[in-house]
Amino acid sequence: MIQRFDVGARLSEMAVHGNTIYLAGQIADDASQDIQGQTRQVLEAIDALLARAGSDRSKILMAQIFLADLADFPGMNAVWDAWVPAGNAPPRATVQAALAKPEWKVEIVVTAAV
Fold first, then answer.
1. Measuring CA to CA, which of 43, 61, 109, 110 is 20 to 30 A from 17?
2. What is the tens place of the pLDDT at every residue in 19-54?
3. Would you say 80 and 89 are in contact if contact means Cβ atoms under 8 Å apart?
4. What is the number of alpha carbons within 13 Å of residue 37 lying toward its C-beta?
5. Model confidence band, residue 64 (pLDDT cutoffs 50, 70, 90)
6. Range of 8's domain?
7. Which of 93, 109, 103 is nearest to 24 (CA)?
8. Cα separation, 86 vs 57, whole angstroms
9. Which residues share a beta bridge with 22?
10. DSSP code string of 39-106
11. Which residues have CB under 8 Å from 69's CB, separation 6+?
12. What pLDDT score was predicted for residue 12?
């Protein structure tokens, strides 16, 4: 069975299949903030979605991070490093990408276990 959350015409924010959670790319609600502020918002959204599915950040299986500008890599990493649980850092990829809106600095996609 597939369970979908916050289903829209184009995408769902999250899908759960078996014991695996798939999140859509998460972006900041307030895109006027700098990279650290946007990253904090994105990670808070991830925390909230994972909690809805009965999981948490310690169960992340894979993270994909998209940065509009690689110059923001150190600022994003500072927030990420403070957020990720010690001993539970997931496999991760970070790439530079043209995001859908120019004010977005970071988008993060996560797959996690329930």
1. 43
2. 999 999 999 999 999 999 999 999 999 999 999 999
3. no
4. 8
5. very high
6. 2-113
7. 109
8. 11
9. 15, 111
10. HHHHHHHHHHHHHHTT--GGGEEEEEEEES-GGGHHHHHHHHHHHSPTT-PPPEEEEE---SSTT--E
11. 96, 105
12. 97
The token pair that represents 35 in the structure block: 């990279």
Two tokens at 25? 């790319």
Which residue in this structure is represented by tokens 């509009």?
A: 68
Rounded-to-integer distance, Cα 98 and Cα 114, Å: 31
Query: Which value, to the nearest 10 degrees, does the dihedral of the CA atoms of residues 97, 103, 105, 111 take?
Result: -80
d(CA 99, CA 97): 6
Question: pLDDT tens-digit profile of 73-113?
Answer: 999 999 999 999 999 999 999 999 999 999 999 999 999 99
Provide the CATH number for the domain around residue 95.
3.30.1330.40
Count of domains for the chain: 1
- Give 82's contacts (C-beta < 8 A, 6+ positions apart): none
Could you tell me the two tokens for 92? 């991760």
